[in-house]
Amino acid sequence: MTNIEEILHNYRQQKQKEQVSAAIESNRPQSKKESDHKQINPNENNSELTQKNILFFPKILALLVYILKPIRVLLHYILLPFDVISNYVKSTPIYIKTSQQIDRIPKIISWTIIFVLWCLLWSLAISVEFGCVFLIISGILFICLNTRTRDKLEGEPSAYSVFNENCEAIKGKPQTDEKVCKRC
């Protein structure tokens, strides 16, 4: 089956190439008579402009439409789910049960936006051959920004109590006090 599909695909590509080359060939002027082509002065009022005077521009536009049609179709199918989702969101009532959900929604959106922007910057850095350095610097920044410098919150387990469940003294270390070893 794949062999037939490949042959059909190659045939279609060949036909498209032939159509494009035929369109380009048909746009070339056959004769260079003065009567066929006029000099157009943009300062004068040229009311008698016809397709004969401007032969190439409509064909270029047709070629551009032919080339850009798959992109338009692709964008339509990419943006269609967003339209369906937005219509669904507009038509459904909003029920919020807790304030925790209200706080969580912007956090998810903001982290998604940050991640997408980081990916865009990384791809830009890769394109200028700076991707590895960008990745290392952003990794160091991520580690530094996520290292806790604040005091431990109430009920939050400390790293000492997580790895030392019974809060036993470790040889060579100072004695632990209840404040450090307090578990949630």
TrEMBL record:
Q: Which UniProt keywords apply?
A: Membrane, Transmembrane, Transmembrane helix
Note one Pfam family from the annotation: SAYSvFN
| Membrane-crossing segments per the record | 60-80, 113-145
Q: Which superkingdom, per the lineage?
A: Eukaryota
The answer to whether UniProt assigns keyword Hydrolase to this entry is: no
Positions of region (Disordered)? 14-45
Key word Transmembrane present in the record? Answer: yes
SAYSvFN domain: from which residue to which, for each copy?
A: 115-175
InterPro entries annotated for this entry?
SAYSD1, SAYSvFN_dom
Q: From the Swiss-Prot or TrEMBL record, give the protein name.
A: SAYSvFN domain-containing protein
